[in-house]
Design goal:
179 residues; alpha+beta; DNA polymerase, domain 1; 6 helices; binds FE2/S2 (inorganic) cluster
């Protein structure tokens, strides 16, 4: 598969590389310019637009995806650096009929308002719960410290991740606040 469209969006150059990236479990062979950012490959080349671009300068975390299970800001990584690696985007987190506990937590605890930061928040949270299934509130806040939200004040996001941790461990998730 060759993504001539992907090349065009960064101004055409004859210099392209063929790379293989496993995205959400599926190997994808794509041809990209060496300067193409991973976030543009995901959004424009592979039409995975759940990964957002909020700043393009490594500040906001809206573009967070998992690279071999580690959270990275995909606006700060070149697509060619993902060659031979596994990338997980928010589209790979769960399915409508079987939500990831993190997705369910955000729903249950109302961990979003406009939702722009939410994909990145959820990917950072997924990485945390993969390495620390029983995080403290401080652990959650630290893990999400590279992700900015301009709406929520973070409180419900933290509650959502703690709810997901309980759910994932099979513990009784904390009761939702009465609203
Ligand atoms: S778009 Fe990547 S950190 Fe903001
Ligand atoms: S919910 Fe709007 S930026 Fe976080």
């Amino acid at each position: 598969m060759s993504f001539s469209k992907t090349v065009e969006i960064t101004e055409t150059s004859a210099d392209t590389r063929r790379i293989t990236v496993t995205v959400n479990g599926t190997p994808r062979v794509v041809e990209v310019e060496p300067r193409l950012l991973l976030v543009h490959l995901l959004r424009e080349g592979l039409a995975l637009r759940g990964t957002h671009i909020g700043c393009d300068t490594t500040n906001c975390g809206a573009c967070t995806v998992l690279h071999d299970g580690n959270p990275i800001k995909s606006c700060t990584m070149l697509a060619v650096q993902a060659d031979g690696h596994e990338i997980t985007t928010v589209e790979g987190l769960g399915t409508p009929s079987e939500l990831d506990p993190v997705q369910e937590g955000f729903h249950r605890e109302h961990g979003l308002q406009c939702g722009f930061c939410t994909p990145g928040m959820m990917m950072a949270a997924r990485a945390l719960l993969d390495r620390e299934p029983d995080p403290s509130e401080e652990d959650v806040r630290w893990a999400l410290s590279g992700n900015l939200c301009r709406c929520t004040g973070y409180q419900n996001i933290v509650k959502a991740v703690l709810w997901a941790a309980d759910k994932q461990r099979g513990a009784q998730p904390a009761e939702e606040d009465a609203r």
